[in-house]
Design a protein that fits this description.
The complex is a heterodimer of chains A (203) and B (354). Chain A has 203 residues and is α/β, with parallel strands linked by helices. In chain A, 43% of the residues lie in helices and 11% in strands. In chain A, the strands form two sheets. A five-stranded mixed beta sheet of chain A has the order 4-3-5-6-7. A two-stranded antiparallel ribbon of chain A has the order 1-2. Chain B is of the alpha/beta class and 354 residues long. Chain B contains ten helices and 15 strands. In chain B, α4 packs across α5 and α6 (176-213) crosses α9. Classes of the chains: A alpha/beta (203), B alpha/beta (354). Chains A and B meet through α7 of A and α5 and α6 of B. The structure holds zinc ion. Residues 57, 59-60, 62, 68-69, 71-72 of chain A line the site of zinc ion.
Chain lengths: 203, 354
C-alpha cells in the first residue's frame, strides 16, 4: 500500500535530515500526525521563524538575529584578537570554556580539493580583510586536527604573513578529531597551550 | 597467539560453521571452490581488517543474505583468552568490529592484536611485481608493529589524494604549498620507518634465503626512497612539472625496495626458483619480525602453496614452522606431512575433522 501523497511527502522531507534513515523518518512522521496539533505545528513554525530571522553576522558570520551577533555587539570583548573556527557551533564550544574574550570568525569550511573547496569557497578573503581593517594582530586558529584542518591552518598562516601572530589550538585535541566532540576542560587547556603554526611541522 | 575456535556465519559459502583449533599444524583438504581459502581469509580479516582475495567487502557475505560475519576465539602466548567478532551488513554496506565485546574505534588498537603471516601463490609478485607490492609488504608489517606508522600512513594518503585532486582541478596554485608541507611532515615519518625496517629485514632475509636455497651468494635488500635528500626542496623543484602533468610525482608513494642477489636485480635477472624462494623468505622474515618486535608468536597461514615447493624446501619449511604457535594449511592434493597434524576435509561450505 502507498501512503497518501501528503504523508509520503512528510516522510521524504524528514528523511533528508542528517542521521535520519527511512525507519526513523516514518516514526517521526507518524508521531507528527498523532500528537496534538499545536505541538506538531510548533515545529513547522520554529523552522519558518528560524529561517526568516537567523542570518550570518555581518562581521564574523556567527548565527545571529541582528546584523551583528551577540559577541560582536558586546563592547566588553577584546579587540585586536580573533579566533577562527569552521562552524558556528564551534563558537558555542569555545564560549563554554569562559577563557576566551576576543572575537570570532566563522570560515564555513576547510580546504578540500576533493570536494572542490578552495580558498574562494570558504571565508578566507573576508578574514584577511577584517584583519587589515580592524587592526587585528593576533589570530588563533581553532580548526580540526584532520588533514583538511592542518592544510587550512598552514594556508591561513602563510596568507596572514609574519606581521600577525598566528597560533593554533593543538595540544590536547585528539588527532583527527573535531572541535565539536571535545569537552570544555580539554578545550580550555588547548586555549592556554596553543602553539605558533610554524612550529607544527618539522620543516 | 593462537586461535582456539573459528566460527563463520553467512560468510562466503558457509551458512554456519564452527571449527575447533589447537596448537601446531592443521591441514584443510578439499577441491577448489569448496571454502578452504575462506577459512584462511576469515583469520586474515581478523588480523588485518582486509581480505587478501577481494577489495569488495560485500563479497564476504553469503549470497543473498542481509549480513554475515566471523568470530575468533583466541589465546595469547600467556594463556589469556581474547574474543574478536567481525560482522558485515549488506545494505548499506557496514562493518562492525568487536574486540572483547567492545566496538573497535581505532584501527590501530585492532591491528596489533593478532600477529599473522600469510603465504599464497601470489607471493611471487612480491619479488617480480611492481614496487607497489614491496611497499605494501613493508606497510603491512609496519602497520601491525607501530600504531604511529598506521596513523602517518593514513594521513599521508589523505593528503596525497587531496593534492592529486588539486593538481587535476588546476584551481588554486597558492594552496599547493600547504598540502606539500603536510606531505613532507607525514612522508618523512614514513621514510624513517621504512628505512629502519629495511635495515632490520636484510640480515634476516639473507640467512633465511641461504637456508632455503642452499646458495651462498649475497642477498641485498635496499630501500630506495623516491626522495634521497631534503623532501621539501625536492617538492619545490618538482612543482612546475607536477602542475603540468597534473599528478603527484614526488614522495614515499613512489618508493622502491630493491632485491638483488650478487650483482643482479632479482626482479629482472633471477630464476623462477630463486624468486620463489626469496618470496618465501620474505614472508618468513615478516613473521620473525612480528615475533621479535611484537613479542607474540604469529599464526601462520599457507594457502595452496605448500605443494609447489620441492621436497627439500618443504622439509625446511616444516622445521621452521615448528616455531610457530599455530599453522593453517589449505591444499587441493593430499600432503605427505611426517610431523603430527590435524586433518580436515572441506566440501561445499562444510568442514569435517578426519
Ligand atoms: Zn559576529
Amino acid at each position: 500500500m502507498d501512503y497518501p501523497e501528503a504523508l509520503e511527502e512528510l516522510v521524504e522531507s524528514l528523511q533528508q535530515l542528517p542521521t535520519i534513515g527511512p525507519k526513523s523518518a516514518q516514526r517521526l512522521a507518524f508521531w507528527l500526525l498523532e500528537t496534538a496539533e499545536p505541538k506538531a505545528l510548533r515545529l513547522s513554525e520554529a523552522i519558518r521563524s528560524a529561517r526568516n530571522q537567523i542570518r550570518p553576522c555581518r562581521r564574523c558570520f556567527n548565527y545571529s538575529d541582528r546584523e551583528l551577533c551577540q559577541i560582536c555587539a558586546d563592547p566588553q570583548r577584546k579587540t585586536g584578537v580573533v579566533c577562527v573556527v569552521v562552524q558556528p557551533k564551534d563558537i558555542v564550544a569555545l564560549e563554554k570554556t569562559r577563557e576566551y574574550r576576543g572575537g570570532y570568525h566563522v570560515l564555513g569550511g576547510l580546504l578540500s580539493p576533493l570536494d572542490g573547496i578552495g580558498p574562494d569557497q570558504v571565508r578566507i578573503h573576508e578574514l584577511l580583510e577584517r584583519v587589515r581593517e580592524e587592526a587585528i594582530d593576533e589570530v588563533i586558529l581553532a580548526l580540526d586536527t584532520t588533514v583538511g584542518g592542518e592544510a587550512t591552518c598552514l594556508y591561513l598562516s602563510r596568507q596572514l604573513g609574519p606581521e600577525t601572530s598566528v597560533t593554533r589550538l593543538a595540544q590536547g585535541l585528539p588527532a583527527g578529531g573535531n572541535l565539536d566532540y571535545t569537552d570544555e576542560v580539554t578545550l580550555g587547556r588547548a586555549l592556554r597551550g596553543r602553539r605558533r603554526v610554524e612550529d607544527l611541522s618539522p620543516q | 597467539m593462537r586461535i582456539s575456535a573459528l566460527r563463520l556465519q553467512d560468510f562466503r559459502n558457509y551458512t554456519f560453521q564452527e571449527v575447533e583449533l589447537g596448537a601446531g599444524l592443521h591441514v584443510f583438504e578439499g577441491r577448489n571452490a569448496q571454502g578452504k581459502t575462506a577459512l584462511l581469509e576469515a583469520v586474515y580479516l581478523g588480523a588485518t581488517a582486509r581480505s587478501f582475495r577481494t577489495s569488495k567487502e560485500a563479497d564476504l557475505i553469503r549470497w543473498g543474505q542481509p549480513d554475515g560475519g566471523l568470530h575468533l576465539a583466541m589465546e595469547r602466548d600467556s594463556g589469556r583468552p581474547r574474543q574478536l567478532t567481525m560482522r558485515w551488513q549488506a545494505q548499506p554496506l557496514q562493518r562492525h568490529i568487536l574486540l572483547q565485546n567492545q566496538p573497535v574505534r581505532r584501527l590501530a588498537d585492532f591491528l596489533s592484536e593478532l600477529p599473522l603471516a600469510l603465504f599464497t601463490p601470489d607471493d611471487l609478485e612480491l619479488v617480480q611485481g611492481g614496487p607497489e607490492m614491496r611497499r605494501g609488504y613493508l606497510d603491512l608489517l609496519l602497520c601491525k608493529l607501530y600504531p604511529a606508522y598506521l596513523e602517518a600512513l593514513g594521513r599521508y594518503q589523505k593528503v596525497l589524494r587531496q593534492k592529486g585532486a588539486l593538481l587535476r582541478a588546476q584551481s588554486s596554485r597558492a594552496e599547493l604549498e600547504s598540502w606539500d608541507q603536510l606531505l613532507v611532515q607525514f612522508g618523512s615519518q614514513l621514510m624513517q620507518f621504512r628505512a629502519e625496517i629495511c635495515r632490520q629485514l636484510e640480515p634476516r632475509l639473507t640467512s633465511l634465503y641461504a637456508e632455503f636455497s642452499g646458495e651462498t651468494c649475497i642477498l641485498r635488500l635496499v630501500y630506495r626512497p623516491c626522495v634521497e635528500h631534503d623532501f621539501g626542496e625536492t617538492l619545490r623543484r618538482a612543482h612546475q612539472e607536477e602542475w603540468r602533468r597534473r599528478t603527484c610525482l614526488v614522495g614515499p608513494h613512489r618508493d622502491e625496495v630493491q632485491l638483488s642477489l650478487g650483482e643482479a636485480l632479482v626482479r629482472r635477472f633471477g630464476s623462477q626458483g630463486q624468486r620463489r624462494t626469496l618470496a618465501l623468505a620474505m614472508r618468513l622474515a615478516q613473521a620473525e619480525m612480528l615475533l621479535e618486535i611484537g613479542k607474540e608468536r604469529p599464526v601462520v597461514l599457507l594457502d595452496d602453496c605448500f605443494s609447489e615447493l620441492d621436497p627439500g624446501r618443504q622439509a625446511r619449511l616444516l622445521r621452521w614452522l615448528e616455531g610457530a604457535s599455530q599453522v593453517l594449511i589449505t591444499t587441493a592434493t593430499p600432503l605427505d606431512l611426517s610431523p603430527e597434524h590435524r586433518l580436515y576435509r572441506v566440501e561445499e561450505g562444510r568442514v569435517r575433522p578426519c
